[in-house]
Amino acid sequence: MGNELLTWVNSHRLVSIILASVAMLGLGLVVLVALMRPPVTAASIETAATTTSQASRTSVTKRSQPSVLKESASGPIYVDVKGAVKQPGLYRVTAAMRVADAIELAKGLLPQADQRQVNLAAKVVDQQVIYVPVKGEQLPAIAAPAAKSQPETATTAGGTPKTGSKTTGAKGKINLNTADVAALQKLAGVGQKKAEKIIAFRNEHGGFKSVAELKKVGGFGDKTLAKFQDQLTV
Fold first, then answer.
1. 111, 113, 114, 120 alpha-carbon torsion, rounded to 10°
2. Angle between helices 13-36 and 2-11 (to 10 degrees)
3. How crowded is residue 45: how many other Cβ atoms within 10 Å of its Cβ?
4. What pLDDT sits at residue 66?
5. Do the beta carbons of residue 99 and residue 122 sit within 8 Å?
6. pTM > 0.70: yes or no
7. Cα-Cα end-to-end distance for the chain
8. Distances in Å between the alpha carbon of 109 and those of 87, 92, 225, 234?
């Protein structure tokens, strides 16, 4: 067997030389590539990991930016729930909520509430006043405070917001159902505390049905009512 192999090599010497040269050349290239490759160190591994982490955080930030910008642009929405509800007050809502949701935040309607006058399906808007009347009450127009750059808005029983509602009625009379503390203090002898009592009574009882009901507020009697009779309305 060995003689035969030797005989074949001798007879094909040129081919053997070429094959040996190719093998050596390939081995040399492998060694050269290995020598030229930079060594893998702990520092290089840490750098690669840091780069990957930064790229990941950047991608997450870009995806989350639209929602953050949208939320900051819209801002919070507040509505003032008044009248025949269990807990009248100022509540924070979202643009997707309805009047029914705002009333639910106020712990629901009182037994004497006239739900027929309330549009529960109406969408809420910022600075909206949602007023729920009691049964048999003639619904007043409730003014909602507004920013200087925006028109004053109002709603009646959670209906469509109205524009231009005022705290004074006909001939400049002060409306007991819409006036704020500042407006009520325009009455002679009415200070901040008495004005707050009027508003508290209004919120608790779902508004004044007549000017005469002012006597039910502590500190107001027949003489005071007679003095203010021509200055007030509901």
1. -110
2. 90
3. 10
4. 47
5. yes
6. no
7. 125
8. 9, 18, 31, 22
